[in-house]
């Protein structure tokens, strides 16, 4: 009886000890997983730092590429205008030469007819001598004029040949400028695609690792409560560590943004960037409708309508963040940016959007492009405190924005 009772107590103690041993084993395994995750986090942070460095340089390159593409577009506009003027000049000269050529041909024909008539026949003509003498005098006077007009025609022909040579060279220059502009647009598109790839790579991997580590930490916390209350302090320490890590990452991100902005400012942005009141116009080209004017629908405009080249880059007018990006009702593709000082900007009528919601952008950083067909237009509106203001006046310097 005593032996049976002792065996029963022993079996009960073994049964109660088994869950504790299993829990400790699970806890140790979770802690090993956490340590491995922290090592992986350190590797990912190092990789993310390198990617962020590349991303900062890439954003500065994007700003430079967009500025250069805008300058090339303006140069192409100038060359096309000059080419049109040369075409018109060539047409006018050709018409003038043809008219002189016809008049000279008629006069030469008359002279040839007179030259074939012998003197005896002229004497025998039934005309009074005075008329014959008058004809001879007129013929004699016409010869110098004929030579003068022939010389002028020869000079005009030489000028026309020179003009056509210049026109051919100008056409080659226009073609080269157009090809260079197309290449720059293609390079900008590749840079924008690389930027988006870097954003996705760093964000998705970091979020996935953070989610996994948070799950492991929660599981470890539950197991620790089963073993010892002292583990509560360890969880608090882990929480403090996570807060410090978050603060460190936020500080590192702010530092990277600062470096990217300094690089962009150091490049001084190419002179092709049109500025207005300390602000960069989102696209290079002409202002079709100004603030306060009647637009083509007869409505008072609350912003600017800009006409640019097909496929031209659309850039951020000020530093800020993307609040909305995508199609909206009948406005097509639009972007809404939030800036410091209570400012917001609206860009409507884009052909392509490269930015994404939540993305921080620098002034002059490309966010999309105009339509690649024809001569597209876009609408740009600037608001402060929700009320439209004249974009041509820029922003107030007291807001710390609008640096050129």
Q: Specify the overall morphology.
A: elongated
CATH-assigned fold name of the largest domain: Helix Hairpins
Name of the CATH first level of the largest domain:
Mainly Alpha
Alpha carbon gap, first and last residue: 97 Å
Most strands sheet = 8 strands, antiparallel
Structural class: alpha+beta
Q: Specify the CATH architecture of the largest domain.
A: Orthogonal Bundle
Estimate what percentage of residues fall within beta strands: 5-15%
Radius of gyration: 41 Å
Arithmetic mean pLDDT: 78
Please tell me the total number of domains. Answer: 2
Number of strands: 13
Number of DSSP helices? 4
Helix content: 55-70%
- What sequence of helices (H) and strands (E) makes up the elements? HHHHEEEEEEEEEEEEE
User: Unreliable runs, pLDDT <50, ≥5 residues?
Assistant: 1-7, 266-274, 397-404
Question: Quick summary of this structure?
Answer:
By secondary structure, the chain is α+β, with helices and mostly antiparallel strands.
Any overview of this molecule?
The chain has 404 residues and is α+β, with helices and mostly antiparallel strands. It has two domains: 2-264, Helix Hairpins (Orthogonal Bundle); 275-399, Glucose Permease (Domain IIA). The protein has four helices and 13 strands. The protein has helices at residues 2-115, 119-124, 129-227, 231-266, and strands at residues 275-276, 279-280, 286-289, 304-307, 313-315, 320-327, 333-338, 343-350, 352-353, 360-361, 366-369, 377-384, 387-389. The strands form three sheets. Strands 3, 4, 6, 7, 8, 10, 12 and 13 form an eight-stranded antiparallel β-sheet that branches. Helix 1 (2-115) runs antiparallel to helix 3 (129-227) and helix 1 (2-115) runs parallel beside helix 4. The radius of gyration is 41 Å and the shape is elongated. Mean pLDDT is 78; it is low at 1-7, 266-274 and 397-404.
